[in-house]
Amino acid sequence: MISGTNMSDLFNGCGEGTGFSPTPHNLTYCGSVHDGLMCWPPAIAGRTVRKKCPAFHGFDSSRDAVRKCGKNGSWEEIVESIVTISKTNFAECVIPYEVDIFRRFDDHTRDTALTMSAVALSLLILSLLSIIVVFVIYYCILPKFINTCLHVRIHKTLFTAAILDILAKMTSHSLLLYELNNISFLNSIFFTSFMCKFLATFKQYTEIVYLGWLAMDSNFIQILCKSEHLCSYGFTMYCIVGWGLPVVPLTLWVVTLVVDHKVQCWIDHTSHPVMWVIDIYKVFILTTTLVFLVLALVRLHMAKYKDKVYDLPKMKYEVRMSLANLGFVGISCALVMIPTHLPLGGHQVVQFLSVIMTSLMGFLAAIIYAFANKDFLKFLKHNEVRMRFGKYLTLNVP
């Protein structure tokens, strides 16, 4: 009896050099197969076949992977296995330190992760498109002198940081969807040791850089609230602090993980105690931003500064909008950080909320700093700008 394959498959690359010579007329056996990680030769029905584990990160190559050939001549599922891929039991291969990690990827967890990643990708695309629209308006429609203003340059850099943050999250969710749909967390060409660790590092960097530029914007506002002059210098220092300062906590975080978290792709790195380094920095940045905005609001209500501020109602409106954005971002970060250190009941609900809110941060930034910005809207309504917009569409839209 021949089951699961035809005769030519018995002697393909997976069956060569095994010494197995079936006699098809009087034997029941399972055909050779590739499970996605390694080849398995033909096996006599009722036998359990063992082969050395492949040399993947997180696997002990001195141990054995197992497949079972059923009595009817077909490979059987091993339902009690922690890690089963294409009917191969890799439970013995997994290094004990990582077994608890693999237990989490049951069917329910996988379906939940798929849903969250799909929702996140949709919202991230919305955020990305909204910021791209803002950039098109800035560079192609608004007058050049507007783009040279320090506050506008800060906003554009903030949008750049938001785009990098969005792209990092989109890449992360896209790769997760790829892995989940293929039901393999082990053999993706994207999840090489370097690439997945680089992605984790880049994702953390873009998140804290975005928060840093929120602080840069709030600092500019509080300076503007005590001076009658528009600042036109200092952008280089803003860039050094905004792009450079996050490297300090990030370096400490990376070095600690390299030394103390030797796990495939840094899986579960957010549960490592060193995550406090990143989270404390986020709390520091958010607190600093809040202090700057509260200071600006206080100054706007002081007689000493009221007369010096140009367009007082507009400045109050801008501070309030920045506070609203900070509140949204602060809650988003809290939903990510708190469950990591203080496990909560209803954790899945918290995860969904954090995914939705963190994915919408870029969209909200585009609304707050552009489409709800009175100066931005004033220039868009100007006749010359409308003419430039019409000309741009004529030249660029087929």
Shape: elongated
Strand content: 5-15%
Number of helices: 15
Which structural class do you get from the secondary structure elements?
Answer: mainly alpha
pLDDT average, as an integer?
77
Major sheet, described briefly? 3 strands, mixed
* SSE arrangement, N to C: EHEEEEEEEEEHHHHHHHHHHHHHH
Q: Nearest-angstrom radius of gyration?
A: 28 Å
Distance between the termini: 65 Å
- In percent, how helical is the residue content? 55-70%
Structure description:
The chain contains 15 helices and ten strands. It is mostly helical. Strands 1-2-5 form a three-stranded mixed beta sheet, with no helix packed on it. A hairpin with a 4-residue loop joins β3 (33-34) and β4 (39-40). The chain is elongated, with a radius of gyration of 28 Å. The termini are far apart.
